[in-house]
Amino acid sequence: MQLHSGDVGFYWQFGPEVTAAALRTWRREGRILGVGLVDGPDLVRLAIEPEAREDEALARQMADDVTRPERGVLSEDKAHVEALWEGRFREVLQEDGWELDEPWIPMVRDLSEPVADSGVRIEVVGPERVEDRVAVHRGAFAGSKFSAERWRAMSAGTPYADARCLVGYNDRGEAVAATTVWSAGPGKPGLVEPLGVHRDHQGHGYGKAIAIAAAAALRDMGASSATVCAEGANTAAVATYRAAGFQPQPEVRDLRRIG
Question: What region does 256 belong to: left with phi over 0, alpha with psi -120 to 50, or beta?
């Protein structure tokens, strides 16, 4: 589970200039080997070229860059690095005193077979359904500032060309659940991020339904699998994804530095 094009796509809600300013790359001879998304002053989400996971020079350069605040990645206070893969980079950080953080559970649903109907009415979000998409998101995630303006910025971004927003409706026509799914291209893993059920409609199976709809949408888009990463402590989310056919993988952990 690495930084996905969908992570960058969802961040695009803040606009292309802000998104570009939040991205970091590590290159060798013009080839990008590592990518980071600075998600606030205390978190960077990373991806690395798989064949470079044991590259000593790259690991030490990346570790140096994320550790030293003057490099413009993280602040000097407490910080978190999301590097959810095994390899030399994680080892170098831990040798430098970084600690394992709380566990995350990657979950994957194979899309080689057709996906059953979700059981609720699902609509793809366009301009006419933005308010429903926003209302569900804000009702699902306390303190969210997601807005129609942010949705329009996100949907205008390059990654959204391979994405869809979905809204689920109950029998009374009320918007109860929503998600955004991101393809990385045909035959590649797709990402479910974010997914939520409005707090007024939780406990009725809508989370499972929208997760199934997400898998179906990604299959239609040619993705090889649907992936999501749930907090290990959020047992309800893990159970919901399992019920929707997502299989848990071995837990992974961020790394943290105590300021």
Answer: beta
Q: Which of 54, 84, 105, 69 is nearest to 257 (CA)?
A: 69
Q: Contact at 8 Å (CB) between 191 and 164? A: no
Cα dihedral sign for 163, 4, 141, 233?
positive
User: What's the Cα-to-Cα distance from 178 to each of 12, 34, 162, rounded to whole Å?
Assistant: 18, 31, 17
- 67-94 mean pLDDT: 92
- Residues contacting 120, CB < 8 A, separation 6+: 168, 169, 170, 176, 177, 206, 209, 210, 213
Cα separation values, 177 from 25, 38, 150, 210, Å = 35, 28, 18, 6
Can you name the residues that pair with 191 across neighbouring β-strands?
Answer: 182, 227
pLDDT for 117-160, tens place per residue?
999 999 999 999 999 999 999 999 999 999 999 999 999 999 99
Question: Is residue 184 a contact partner of residue 8, using CB atoms and an 8 Å limit?
Answer: no
Q: CA 205, 211, 214: angle at the middle one, nearest 5? A: 145
Do the beta carbons of residue 255 and residue 87 sit within 8 Å?
no
Contact call for residues 183 and 218 (beta carbons, < 8 A):
yes
Give residue 158's Cα distance to chain centre: 16
How many beta carbons lie within 10 A of that of residue 198, not counting itself? Answer: 20
What average pLDDT is seen over the chain? 96
Question: Which of the 8 DSSP states describes residue 154?
Answer: H
